[in-house]
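Here comes a specimen:
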Amino acid sequence: MSRKPEPTAGAAGVLTALLCPLFRRFRRRLLFVVLALLASDLLHLSLPRYLKTGVDELTQGIADQQRLLMLALYMTLTAVAVGLLRYVWRTLLVGFSRHLETALRDQLIAHVLGMDQTYLDRHPPGEIMAHASNDLSAVQLAFGMGLAAAIDVGVMAAIAVFFMLHISPPLTVIAALPLPLLAFSTFFLSRELHRRFERVQSQFSLLTESARNTLISIRLIKSCTREEQQIREFGQLGQEYVSSNIRAAMVHGLLMPLAMLTGSLGTLLVLYSGGGMVIRQEITLGDFVAFITYFAMLSLPLATVGWSTSLIRRGLTSLARISRLLEAGSAVNASLRTTTQPVILQSRPHISLRRLSFSYPGTITPALRDIDLEIGPGVFGITGRTGSGKSTLCRLLLRQYPVADGSYLFAGHDVNQLDTALIWRHVSWVDRNTALFSGTAAENISLAKPDAPLEEIMAAAKLAAVHDEIMAMPEGYQTRIGEKGLRLSGGQKQRFAIARALLADRPILILDDALSALDAETATAVFARLCARQRSRTLLVVSHHVQLLAHADHILLLDQGSVAAQGSHALLMARNVYYQDAARRQQGKEDADARIRLF
């Protein structure tokens, strides 16, 4: 169930595309960070100078109590100033990392919301959730504590080396002899760490998607008694995730010991060579103490090189994954050729399909073939066998997938010249898989029109024949209906969705098998109200219920993605065998149900 990691985008490109705008936005904060960091490190590295002065004066016998007290006071004040400046720049930098995390999360969500179904098919919700949580957390740590440690190491090392060279260039060269070991090991290990962290994050995406699928399907899993299998499969993914983390930890665990080994080797060389220089009087004892102190200050940050490298490498890995998600564009938007002139659509747009054909990405067999259809004000029905392309046609009308130029005209305009949002503002859609959230009944109905007064919400609910059932709830329209409408039946959920679409009050209403969970009597009543309301607009209904479609002005019969027949209900009853058989079967079932109710 594991997935092979995708190739990683170049770090420089990722930084340029995603981070440079944010760096410009927070440039004043970052400028204060740099100034405070430089000041704190310069003050910190002035402490060995006080030590050198004190040791040299003691060695020469010219120091007194007052002089030593003054040096101690200078060192104390300097240490306090260093602590305050470190607090300032670290707080500012970590704060920047939080702003960075928020900005990237907002950009990620905005990008996903603007994508079409093709994009969402390639990137399941679990993967997007992993990007918005684990990956963004890694980016925040990298550009917070990781970047703070890296900058501190760089600035501290540069200034410390400068003072060490000022004391003794030969001793500085000797102290630096073990550093190539750290540089080469960090370079090669960080590359391997990047690859292994990529694997870890990919496994986390799979784990998140599995958890999401389990939670949203928990009732189905329990009804099929698949708890043990689900636990076993989830445990296997968890074990693979742990194994990936352990493999990454094996590399990560080498960085810190190597840095400490480098520092220890350098210290030994300085003690041996520097002690000899003091004996030979090439440097003073104060210089030697100051040099040792500078090297100790340098060694402590070097010991954190592995930790900061790990954080930054992990953050860059996650940033590359987020970048790939953001770079993956919408197939629908890619086909747009928007004009510079604003497009104003008529209040009741007309839809024209001209030899419309479509295949789902990754498939060869067309889902639709050469569909010709004119849809204007009135009631239009679509029917056909399961898998004949009814829902696919609805998805194309909603611009969830790209279409060929000239095959779909909306209000006389090629849809590839129209912003998809412009089309969506004219179309309401209800399918059989109703989406409800854990809010009140009123909030669920008013989703597309959140400022609607209660009177309008109630009017829409009455048209959808769900008002009485809402009023029977404990708190009426303020009753919370539970996550995904848990407290509602399938028919109630569909009527909630229909009420939501009616309240949106858009000129085109598409019902994709949205009456399937209703009993025949309720479905007929609701459909009659919709027909009466939408006669002056456009109502497109997908249904297997032939008697329901009898009220439609025009009916399209699909078979294996092609138009098998079209016309009025009477025409299809007279000329189409499939339509006749479906009507007889459904009439016989309704008569049988009526006889059962009598007894």
Observations:
- Confidence is low (pLDDT under 50) at residues 1-11, 594-599.
- The domain at 11-328 is CATH 1.20.1560.10 (ABC transporter transmembrane region fold).
